[in-house]
Fold these 3 entries.
Entry 1:
Amino acid sequence: MLRLSLLGEQRLTRRGTDLAAGGSRVIELLAYLVLHPGIRVPRAVLAGTFWPETPQPQAMTNLRRELHNLRLLLGGIEVLGMSDGAIGWVPRAALTVDVQVFAAERRAALLAARAHDQAAFVDHAQAALREYRGDLMPGNYSDWVPEPRERIQRECTSLCDQAAVALTESGQGQRALEVAGRRIGIQPLDELGHRGLIRAHLALGDLPAALQAFRRCAEVLERELGVAPAAETRALLRAGAPDARGERLANRGWHSVGGSTHPPTGTGMKTMEEQTNTVTGAEAPFTDLAASLRGTLTLPLDAGYDEARAVYNGMIDRRPAAIARVHDTADIVACVDFARNNSLGLAVRGGGHQASGLAVADDALVIDLGNMRSTTVDPAAHTVRVDGGALWADVDHATVAFGMATPSGFVASTGVGGLALGGGIGYLTRRFGLTVDNLLAADVVLADGTLVKADEVHHTELFWALRGGGGNFGVVTSFTFRMNEIGEHGKIIGGPVFYDLADAPEVMRWYRELLPTLPEELSGWIGLLTIPPGPPFPEELWGRKACGIVWCYTGAHDVAEKVLAPVRDFGSPLLVGLAPMGFDALQQAFDPLFPAGMQWYWRADFVKEISDAAIEVHARYGATLPTGFSTMHLYPIDGAAARVPADATAFAYRDGGWAGVIVGVDPDPANAEAITAWTKSYYDELHPTTAGGAYVNFMMEEGQDRIRASYLQNYERLARVKAQYDPANLFHHNQNIVPATVG
Ligand SMILES: Cc1cc2nc3c(=O)[nH]c(=O)nc-3n(C[C@H](O)[C@H](O)[C@H](O)COP(=O)(O)OP(=O)(O)OC[C@H]3O[C@@H](n4cnc5c(N)ncnc54)[C@H](O)[C@@H]3O)c2cc1C
């Protein structure tokens, strides 16, 4: 029997004897094939994946050598299939892989929990936990490991939490203590784990041990983080030991590090039912909120909390007080009222895409609109009404079927809410303006809990501010947009043209002169990037750094050849990938290349001209893209968008040019520092060549000066509208407009 261990120290063993260990290539190869079951990988792809920096002939030689070694190690056990130059994994009963065993046991445990079968839950949870012996593989593997290490770790701690509760409930106190202790071993600095152990001791009636666990928690936090236990931890101890001694010990020497205390009732133990449903006892006021919602409320100790708080940018790690996945407008009103009345921070999540992670906030109530995604098209009126939590893929799906579209962005996975409220720059901007220029009306829940409609007739100042002012003014429950006819019944001609990176300066100079001369039916953004190593790109270009322009032509097809001729004919492109396709297909083309959960750090500026000085900086930093996902894009804001006066909507940068964004991206958290440093350094050198402000949807949390610079002369008016509609700044987890002082 072969066993492949990837959780903890990597090993390939047969009947307990090591065949290979540590970071050996053989284990990496085998793991890659095992973790991608059912696929057949061309040899060249495998070589490119494992030796990305090595010239292809040498990489192929390396691959041949390692496959040979692998076959030697596997001996008689036939697990690799090869045909037509492709290598595939043939799963065999004779091979056990701990990651897969872990995942299967965890799945079984969750199913048992859902069926309220505590005994089966505990068995499967413990079987899963037995497989987990530490971190999943070193950092450099994680770009092809489907489950990021943090996620598996979170799944383990969540299983521990639930198992400890279930074991306590079924009277198996000692086993509960073991699981709670194990949880602390996995994440010693997570206070929630320490709370679990304290609870388990209290449930056994062992106050001295609970106090001991509290002291140990306090020591670790003090030593490693320089903070004291949170109020909740002390409250837990006080509630479990309501005599003077417990009180004194829990308070001795420790000061609060923030967060209000809501002492739990009874022993402070939650039933398994409570944990997997919604409300936890320690946050008593939430019980009322949960009862008033048709949607769900997820609290920190609930199963699913970690999934609920995760946003698109894997770098963001915030712990909200609660996440309400709302069902309808009434739920939103309930949440807004609850946050205001309890002085809680309030964050609003549309698609969760903003890189700054403003959709979630520590200790806040998050209104997650992800279940409100319906659309209603009126083809005769050329309008589409869209729920506040929809993604652009939902809107494209609804409108392109009728040969129409609303200007959005350059991908489909972003939320409508954040993108539309910040401005909205995309393929259709030159021809039909920004997304906000196509906004006809919005339904908004205001800070005082009232629901209003804003359009050219009602709440006109609010309507002005919503068109670029972000989520500052309330929760938009639905948007009504104009739809525009595009292409031949929704079919456009689009795709990338790639040039060698060495040609980037020449291509950029040509592009900046060409774009203003093109008809507005044709638009294209320019970028520096690495050609993705996979279909549909030709294999010989995989992993090659390039300068690329992605074009989109939405005019009549019978003149397309003529319009596109200058774009096809220039220079010596590596690839001309222009083809007829549905507009929605172009919108979705890049989504699979950038799945949720990667590390993102980006910096941005508006650019009035692509100057020679800027091109020199681009050329240098394009040559040092730190990872295959990192990139730089310049998105045109010209044509129809530039004809709208700067004060007609809150979006101020109207005088032509581009929104530029430098993006460091990588799946591996270990590379977070490298991508951030590269982005900052690139930005610092480029910034002097730019217009000053930035598109708020591309900004990190960069402070008031940057926000003011982005709204220019419109800021003061925005501040006055803010003072009228949200004077207490309830909606402040955004690129915040500070309410004007009245008087
Ligand atoms: C891969 C990628 C590609 C992108 N491409 C483009 C592009 O081509 N063009 C472009 O213009 N932008 C683009 N963006 C930026 C995008 O516009 C922002 O990330 C935008 O905030 C995403 O909207 P969201 O609803 O997903 O945001 P979230 O992260 O959910 O929210 C962002 C902000 O908007 C607020 N908000 C969201 N929904 C509502 C609502 N219904 N009511 C009130 N406030 C709300 C939130 O409170 C928060 O402050 C891209 C982003 C990514 C990550």
Entry 2:
Amino acid sequence: MRTGDTTKKNIELYDYSKAGSIPSTDSLFGESRDKDGPLAPCQASKMLLHPGRGPLSETEAITQMKQFFNSYYADTDNSNPEKAKEDRLEEVMAMIEAEGDYKHTYDELSWSAKTAWRNAPRCVGRHIWRTLRVVDARDCLSCREIFDAICKSLRLAFNDGLIQPHAAVFGQRHRNSKQKSPGIRVWNGVLLSFAGFMKENGDIIGDPKNVSLTNLAMSFGWEPKVGNFVLLPIVITDANEKTEIFELPADIKAYTVNISHPTEPGITNLGLKWYAIPSVSSMMLEAGGVQYTCTQIAGYFQDTEISVMNLLGESRYNLMEPIGRKLKLDVSKNSTYWKCTVATELTRAVYHSFQLAGVTMDDHISLSDKFNSFMKEEIRTRGGCPADWLWIVPPLSSGLTPNFHHEMLRYTLSPSYEYQSGPEDYFKKPITKVKFYALTRTIMCFINMMRKSIKKRKRITFVYATEGNTAFTYAKTAESLFVKAFYVSVLPITALTEKDELKKCISDTDLCVFIASTFGEGGPPSMAEEFNKKLRDKLYDFGGLKYTVFALGSTHYAKTFARFGKLIDSEVEAAGGIRYEKIGFGNDQSNQKAEFETWIEGLYNRCCDEFLPGGGRSVEGKRLYRWRYCSAKSLSKSFQEAQGDAHKVYEFSLEKKTNLTTDGTDKYMLLTLSYKREPEMNGTELFLPGQHIGIFPKNISSRKDQVLKELSDVPFEGIPLSLEEKIAVHEPWRVWDNNRSGLTLTEWFDNIVDLNRLPNIQRKGLDSATFFGKTPAIKRRLYSIASCQNKNNTVDILIAMHEFQLNGKTLTGLASNFLRHATPGEKILGYFSKTNGQMVLPPDPSIPIILVSSGSGFAPFMSFIKAREQASRSGKKAGRIYIFHGVRYVEWDFLEQLLKKASRVLEMTTFRAYSRSYPHEFRGSCLETRAVIIGYVQDLLGGQEDVVAGVCREGGYIYACGGGKVVAAVQGRLEKILQDRGCSTMQKLIASGRYQEEKFG
Ligand SMILES: Cc1cc2nc3c(=O)[nH]c(=O)nc-3n(C[C@H](O)[C@H](O)[C@H](O)COP(=O)(O)OP(=O)(O)OC[C@H]3O[C@@H](n4cnc5c(N)ncnc54)[C@H](O)[C@@H]3O)c2cc1C
Ligand SMILES: Cc1cc2nc3c(=O)[nH]c(=O)nc-3n(C[C@H](O)[C@H](O)[C@H](O)COP(=O)(O)O)c2cc1C
């Protein structure tokens, strides 16, 4: 800007968009109330030049009053303005003398409100200033009366969406009032605005701009349901300094617009909304030395105010990155212009939505054009137009608007709308100041303590033994806790089978923490088999090693609960180790994660107390969680990573689902899943009879909706999320589990947390990040493969539907319910599981076998029978198969359906037990059936001692599979038969692999 000579009282303003344009001249700035007018040092980007305008001094008020009447009478129609002015001034002076103050007439008030708008340098939409309807609300005294007038004013302004610029002016600040009195105030910045709820972890739900007002409203008893778009109540202080809050009535609450995008469902699905009217309520109308501390003025929105400023603003809803990701833009660098695309698309969505809702709005380019014309007209007719370039130029496509290229002058004319100090000042609490030297001393103490403790850091080693990765996840959680105060290493248990690693571990470690699960029949996970053997063979010397154990297990396996962990605990001690802390247990059937967290935090506190000089820091026991947006990750990749190198995750596709029952229930089902074979896998065997696939089940119950309703907040859908955790307020945030990062909210709900096993915590009002942090993760479920490897690359599984009672309600098993509802073509993530514990067929197919099963325990036997069928079809002799099978009802007996084809080539004899049907309900079979009883499968064996003894003598194999209790009972019965017949002992059969069993739970 080329500044002119101040004495000449005019400044030339150039429009650089047009080469050689004739500048306009502003002479109005000479009337500016600012001391130096626009020639003051440039403060162009300053938001507030003073903290808020307080009461006027006597002299200021009188000077303003005189100027006011000059302007008023010069601007309004009057046959004899000079005379009218003099009369009015006389009247006003008399009023001031008698009462210390004067009152505007309605016309003066209305002119003031309109002219103050016309004068507002920051308002781009004031070309319609003349259309402002002004309501005189000066007779509203109580908070209730003020609120009712506000509602009325809002209704008139909304005008069925066709926004009518509207102002309401309440009682003036009395000149004689106490200096500190704020006057009548509405503390909300705008009448319709969304609350901002600050969570414990510092995150904000809703509009961060309104956190303090939200807190203020809550301190006055407001009890909202937390959410992103919750309209704040109106907080009013009347002239007697009584403060009350008022919830807006339902019809006004409906003055909001849901934001949808014409073509991008990603934006629509975010569920954004904004309020329809920008109704400023915290500014003061100052006119003629009178201050109206409570004034509402409502116009209509410019699109970018909502999109760029409110929804994308970093200090506001901060949705730039989430929307960029939703739109699948490359957000990795600025030069992809993704931010510009987001801003444009969201602005388009905002404008589109307001149009759709029939609510007045201007796009930023049209409004800029309108302002440009207005400004020119003001300069022509009035001699100037105060304008704040920074506010007038829109935040999007600024250079494309005429205002960007036009010089402007910012100055203050009277009447005006003024900023005032906010509620923080009026309601503030005294703050206890910490003296500087005390602060310095505390900091120095802390630094010294840190220095000392870092020097003497102890080394903690976490050793994990896992099959399904849980123990590994726990080791990582422990690492994140201990790393603050100790040197930490995390090692797989296989490391301890290498001499050097073991030596290093023992000599360098101050404490070794084993985290180990149990598998098979009380055995180690497969990765720990060598360690287990050496431990049992007493080949270790742990002399002097301080250690402790956390043992994972399941009380499903009552007899062998956490046996491997217990074994480590006793054997390491026997080998010279020093038990530092009592063994901890995590039961898969209860909240194992919470059990681990409690145990490890206890251990951490003890270690801090004992290993750190000066005690060290202890955990407050309060974990905090928050969401962060991050890069997307595919589910299968996430599960693949959770498996480590152990298994490759496949995307199975459901080919066929067969109901195996005849009574209309779907208790048993056979599912055929197809998978894609990697070319390099050709020729290799992916699985053998008796092996399993691990399935990652999904929640499909309606519990998700129920939980969603209870939680206080929900992050935006469709955006990849990472859950972060910190173990105490002063600790840094850490990613909860890297393998789970990058999933959307739906994926978190469907695939990560087990909604059947909700933790025992109050969910109502809980934030979603904490909910996910505290709820146990879904574990993959094993299913026996019920087929043989084939050219079609398919695999069968036989599932039983699980139902159980909880708190008087019937719940369905998570995985079985998921599989039951899967539809053909559906993708199911899983892997081929190979452990050492599974059942295997005898190498010679001619050897007779006995298969004893209950329910879905028949599944692995299907793979055996298929293998024998293949052998027989390829010309090999297949030995006789004796099938002892038990189910509840005849209608649930699936042997006919499954074995019809195989019975053509195999010699099979079946024995059936129905625990809840009568034998006569069994109506013959295409299979050779030698016995049908009412009872359990172990009872069935009791009557067939000859068969058992015969097979045993022939060198045959016996297999049992099903629920843990049935299998144990079968083993007991077999033992008795063998004893009675004197043909062998269970011990011998087990040792030679001729008796094998598998328990499903
Ligand atoms: C090696 C192996 C092979 C297997 N093969 C097969 C197979 O071929 N076919 C087959 O059908 N199954 C098989 N299983 C069992 C299978 O893995 C699952 O355990 C079974 O399907 C149940 O899983 P679910 O998710 O449906 O039930 P879950 O949700 O795990 O529930 C199972 C049981 O846990 C209890 N429970 C669950 N939630 C709660 C709660 N909130 N409160 C109290 N109790 C609760 C109930 O008693 C319920 O019945 C096998 C298991 C193993 C270990
Ligand atoms: C096939 C199988 C056998 C299991 N055997 C036992 C057992 O004998 N005793 C026990 O306490 N837990 C047993 N469990 C439960 C696991 O130890 C438990 O689920 C643990 O949390 C798994 O941890 P991981 O994922 O680190 O391997 C068994 C689990 C499966 C799937």
Entry 3:
Amino acid sequence: MAAPINAAAVAALADEPLDWRFKGLPASWWGRTPAQICPGAPGLVDDGAVGPVCVLRAEALTHNLATMAGWCRDRGVELAPHGKTHMAPQLLARQLDAGACAVTVATISQLRAYRAFGVRDFILANELVDAAALQWVAKELDSDADLTVVCWVDSVAGVRRMAAGLEAAEAGRPVDVCVEVGIAGGRTGCRDASAVDEVARAAADCPALRLIGVAGYEAAIGHDVTPDGLARVTAYLAELRSAVERLSDVFETDSVVVTAGGSTYFDAVADVLAAGWPAGTSVRTIIRSGCYLTHDQGLYARTSPLREALRPALEVWAQVISRPEPDLALLTMGRRDVSFDQDMPVPLSLPDSVVTKLNDQHAYLRLGPNDRTAVEVGSWLRFGVSHPCTTFDKWQMIPVLDDDDGVVDLIRTFF
Ligand SMILES: Cc1ncc(COP(=O)(O)O)c(C=O)c1O
């Protein structure tokens, strides 16, 4: 059996020389490789980083990996972390090392990026109806007996398109599918039990597909953790449970997959779907959290079931370039550099101040009375983020810092 990821391909990233393509990083590093730069744990600003620059915290990453792995073990669930969060094979390698069973991806392009690093097991948490994509998947599956790809189906039309695409590609083995249970007001997924059953049976009847389970995404309706919000999520997860029970004779495997769970409700997924299956039914419960790895200082700090335990690992640093009013600082950090889809970035060590607005390349920091004297033109300030996914995608290389802010690794992303 092949390894879950090609460690040599991941390690080879450390031998690629840096240059101007990686914004923020010191020009003194150009022409040198991560393998040459990191052993000395250089200081980012000392070496000439220019704002803004994005960083990861080594200690928090290690802590979050171990915390989540332990939680999954205790709760009897597997983890297929969503790889769209960071698109970084180096980080995925650590997640797989910590026990992750697969990577989740949202698109075929994301799957291809991880496949380029020899990743073996995928959940494509989406419908796959594109003929060219089906042809590519069929070819990959035929060329590697160890490769596993599970994708989702939510319509008979989709099942037929998949079947036609795979037949046209002369696929040598079937593609695994889960029937997706949707939620009113949500995204993809069958909207009621009869549609779930109809689609599942259509997939099972189709030799090009192998029906192996049931899938869903409870946070498609939001991240409401009030008792009402949690009750809605629990009721939705119960629909996945009943689909697994109803379809037990239809699945084409002895090891049925049930998968749900982003970073807000994975405890509810474990509560509803991890145990208590009828005797003789073997069920793998797989959660797909992506944001647990770096956690954050906004959305997931408010909603993660492990918000007391996980540590924020992702920051953006920027310089003050203007202090045009007593309570206003402008920084070299904008919408090109940091998340803004959930909340504004959070100034660290400036408890009285808030970012009120971002332009493409500027942040507006309103300074509270106690913070004004500390913030001068030229000061470097650190910011936490809300929603890691939409910060990661703005950086192609992210330094990892030790507790003394020395750079101990450089993480390459592929968005
Ligand atoms: C289908 C699906 N599964 C899992 C996740 C991961 O959730 P999170 O971003 O909260 O970690 C997402 C995120 O959008 C998703 O769309």
